Amino acid sequence: MSRATVVVLGDIGRSPRMGFHALSLAQKGIFVDLVGYTTTKPDDHLLNNANIRMVSLPPPPDFLSSLPAGVSYGLKFLWTAFFLLLTLLFRNGFPSLILMQNPPGIPCMAICHAVARIKRAKFAVDWHNYTWTILRETIDDRRHSLNQANSSANAQTTKKAEKKQVGMKH
């Protein structure tokens, strides 16, 4: 494996866990595209490593948060899905591995899995947490359609992820 894509659908500078995965892969001689928002400065170990390339995603515009919740979630979903898909298809090469952080699972998991299939890469998920635990903080109703859709999407995509545990030495 000579190339990997590590996806953080959040701020890379605030994701030390995924930064560590990228750094561990890079130290093994694997070229890493680290994909995510670059709102805060990532660690210098990531920025100064010749085997790591930052691939910045544009965050959803701030004004979307001022819209009604349903509209805001829908537009943020579309924004995120569009730019993540374009980035993974056209702004990085053909990795042997796509490793993504969960949460957020929607729409990240389905897109990463689809691109992994298209590019014939292995697909792995770092299960930091479950998306529903985060969603429930904002939508405290398990029967809410967003929570139900998320549970279904997580279950379907989880079946498709690599079944092996990946261990990293510190």
From TrEMBL:
The keyword Phosphoprotein does not apply. The chain crosses the membrane at residues 70-90. Pathway: Protein modification; protein glycosylation. PANTHER family: BETA1,4 MANNOSYLTRANSFERASE (PTHR13036), CHITOBIOSYLDIPHOSPHODOLICHOL BETA-MANNOSYLTRANSFERASE (PTHR13036:SF0). This is Uncharacterized protein. The keyword Electron transport does not apply. GO terms for molecular function: mannosyltransferase activity. Residues 148-158 have a biased composition (Polar residues). Residues 148-170 are annotated as: Disordered. GO terms for cellular component: endoplasmic reticulum membrane. It is found in: Endoplasmic reticulum membrane. Keywords: Endoplasmic reticulum, Glycosyltransferase, Membrane, Transferase, Transmembrane, Transmembrane helix. InterPro entries: ALG1-like. Residues 159-170 have a biased composition (Basic and acidic residues).
